[in-house]
Every structure is written in C-alpha cells, then in structure tokens.
Amino acid sequence: MTQDEITLIQRSFSRIFAQKARFGALFYERFFALNPEARAMFQTSITRQSEMLIEALALVVRGMRTDGALPPKALQMAARHGRYGVTPDHYAQMGEALMDTLAEVLGDAFDTETREAWQRAYGRLSEIMIAAAAEPAPDAMAANRNTS
Ligand code: HEM
What we know:
This protein is mostly helical. The protein is 76% helix and 0% strand. It comes from Dinoroseobacter shibae (strain DSM 16493 / NCIMB 14021 / DFL 12).
C-alpha cells in the first residue's frame, strides 16, 4: 500500500468510526443478506459483534504500514478465524458487504481513489487472514508431535 492509499483509508475510516453503530448494523444486514446461513456461526449478539469488528478494523487501519504487515494482535485474531470455520468465500462476501456499506455511509466521500484503496487493503487483509487460518494452531502442532 502507498502512503497516499493509507491516508485515504485512515481519513474515511474516521468518518465511519464516528457512526460505528449505524455502520455495523448496515454491514451485518448486508453480509447476512448475501449469506443467510452464516448467521448461525455467530453466538455473540450482532450489536456486540459489530463493536468488536469495528474495534478490530480500527486496530488494523490505524496500524497500517506501507509494507503491508499487520499488528501481532490482528494476526492472532486472523488465526482464530480458522477455528470459527470461516472460508475464503466468506471473506469475498464480507468484502462485498464492506464495500457496499462504505459506499452507503460515506456517500460522495467514497470517491474512486478511496474505493480502490479500500479494495486493495481489504484484499490484502483477507489474504493474510486466510493464510493465518491455514497455519496449524499451537494445540494441533502439539498433537502432531505426540503421534509422530
Ligand atoms: C475483515 C475481516 C474480519 C475482521 C476484522 C473480524 C473481526 C472479528 C473479531 C474482532 C471477532 C471477535 C473474536 C476474536 O477476536 O476472535 C470475530 C469473531 C468472529 N468472526 Fe470475524 N472478522 C472478520 C471476518 C470474518 C468473516 C469473513 C467471517 C465469516 C463468517 C467471520 C466470522 C466470525 C465468527 C463466526 C466469529 C465468532 C463469533 C462468536 O463466537 O459468536 N469473521 N471477528
């Protein structure tokens, strides 16, 4: 990511953060419209879930670097998603829901440059999350050692 892309994302995210409850509700509504079956994967209330999502996005967005590295906390969160049964298709659907919700909440501020920057950043984040989920969990590694 370039520094300009990072600046566009951080600026637009601060507008989102200022209306995070609305953003979260719209986002999950869109995501579950794309994949109604995914609703059953969440035990947490959607209000609480959307707060956690926004906090996690804030961590990622505020810590964005031009080399694309994620903060360690975000990597741990990514690895947990493998255990939640999240698939690459889910990330694609979530990306679609994210882009549509950004467009709705940001309105005219979601211009072409901002959209492209978000698309690249989400693409990169989801690649990292998918890769982190594919790594064996520490307990799975222990199990391998015991049986080999
Ligand atoms: C941008 C990508 C995503 C971010 C930032 C994110 C963030 C979070 C956070 C912060 C949590 C709280 C628990 C934890 O930290 O482990 C969580 C839980 C969870 N996420 Fe995600 N998530 C993302 C993508 C997805 C996708 C694509 C799915 C697909 C269905 C998903 C499904 C879940 C589920 C099932 C839980 C556990 C809910 C529960 O126990 O009730 N997440 N997510």
